[in-house]
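I am sending you the entry underneath: sequence plus fold tokens. Let me know what the token row says about the fold:
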Amino acid sequence: MADVIDFVTREVSEPLSQIDMRQVIGQDGHYAGQTWLEAVTDPQYKPSKMDFAFRKYDENPSYYFSGEVKNDMYFSSLNGGPWYCDSGGNHRTVVAKFACEHLFRESGNYPFVCGVLKHSYFADLEAFDLFKKLLGFRDRGIHVTVQRRQLSKDSVGRKNTFEYESTFFVADFRFDRHNMRSGWLSAQQFRHFAEHVLKHDGGVARIERLKHYWLQFVRGDFVSLILPPR
């Protein structure tokens, strides 16, 4: 299985941050697939919890705007796109959407929700898409896995930035069903390899077959992965 988190190359964590709820367009989990209005009028997950969240807002209207959230609402974005609520605060996100709109209509100023935890993820979606496609070539002798490691962490105030690197292991049985050629590839090398495989629908080009024989009989190399020409 492929998970986009394995293709994240940069992550920015911003605790106790502010968020413009107009930029929050959805959530993962409880009310995913519903409109904001449907989540209020006909909640598909525990209506009693939604009622409770609105009652708590009525009791303490400043909660969302005074920093009392204290990192207990989580929002994520991918590649600079809009925000989604995930992992915590699903009900309060719905409440906050309507609370902010109500205050905007009353005052003309749109308030920001304060004290949330934001995660900005930047992922190599091209490599992710190619990886998912190559998973379909397993029965043709190509096996792929991905591994991600952290390269660095940089902290400025409360803001933390993490840099990652994804590497790819390719096992290629197309030249010999009983022996594989394999190797670890960088993201750039993997994209080139995958594009070549897809272009030829998993077939082996003549020049690759010749290189296989040359490595095998001239160099005695039975295991090195054969990369397509640049």
Summary: The CA atoms of residues 10 and 163 lie 5 Å apart.
